[in-house]
Amino acid sequence: MTDLVRVWIVPVDVPADIAARCRGVLDDGERARAAAFGSPRDRQRFTVAHGALRILAAHELQTRPAALTWTPGRHGKPELAPPWSGLHTSLSHSGDMIAAAISTGRPVGVDIQHLVPGLEVAGLSARFFPPDEAGYVAAARDASARADRFAHLWARKEAVVKAAGGRLWPNLKIAVQGRDVVSCAEPASSHRVADVAAPPGFRAAVALAGEAPFTTEVAGWPAVEPARAS
């Protein structure tokens, strides 16, 4: 049976009642982390992201969002504590969008990237990406296309790293362009990665530990019907 990964794309600017619900389910540690942000916008982003993940994971587990606890795993990746450790989660945010992912049985990583206007992506690609991927970014027809290619590759790399629980910088040289299965450098491991439909101006990807195929179900949150893709 093919594994199913559920991904939700969540705007930072949710309705006031949804934002209040997200705040209400956070634990004391998360509330303290949110309060530590100097910017109201950053507090909103953190609160909505972590509250939404709690609500979505609790729905999958048929429990209360506030009952869930995450602890650092072997490589530092947050993992649900028992008795919920069979469910795997991942969270990402960029610009005004958040991505949350949930899978059962295999560690998951999700990443969303905002296409930043004016960012000198050809130079960044030459510095951090393998030569063929740097050339792919530089060969795009204009700055907009270069930004799109850069965000596409970066999202795939970061999704793999998040699934593995490793650090990003040692893994930026891993090859992800046109590959379904990617070899993470640190920690050494294989992951399957897939692109995820994202709003205009964003790129997103999701990865699962191991080489076995999976199906992705993508939805907006709250209250948008999912779209399924292989």
Notes on the protein architecture:
With 230 residues, the protein is of the alpha+beta class. It starts with a strand and ends with a strand. It has one domain (3-229): 4'-phosphopantetheinyl transferase domain (Ribosomal Protein L22, Chain A), CATH 3.90.470.20. It has six helices and eleven strands. A hairpin with a 6-residue loop joins strand 10 (214-220) and strand 11 (227-229). 34% of the residues lie in helices and 30% in strands. The mean pLDDT is 92. It has helices at 16-25, 28-36, 40-61, 121-128, 131-138, 143-164; strands at 3-11, 70-72, 78-80, 87-94, 97-104, 108-114, 181-184, 189-196, 202-209, 214-220, 227-229. It has a five-stranded mixed β-sheet, with helices on one face. It has a four-stranded antiparallel β-sheet with strand order 6-9-8-7. A two-stranded antiparallel ribbon has the order 2-3. The longest helix is centred in the first third of the chain and has 22 residues, at 40-61.
Summed up, what is this model?
The protein is of the alpha+beta class.
CATH superfamily: 4'-phosphopantetheinyl transferase domain
- So, CATH architecture? Alpha-Beta Complex
* Average pLDDT figure: 92
Q: What is the oligomeric state here?
A: single chain
Low-confidence stretches: none
At CATH level 3, the topology is Ribosomal Protein L22, Chain A
Q: What is the H-and-E element order? A: EHHHEEEEEHHHEEEEE
CATH class category name: Alpha Beta
Sheet-strand content, in percent, reads: 25-35%
The overall number of domains is 1
**End-to-end CA span:** 13 Å
Main sheet? Answer: 5 strands, mixed
The largest beta-sheet arranges its strands as 4-5-1-10-11
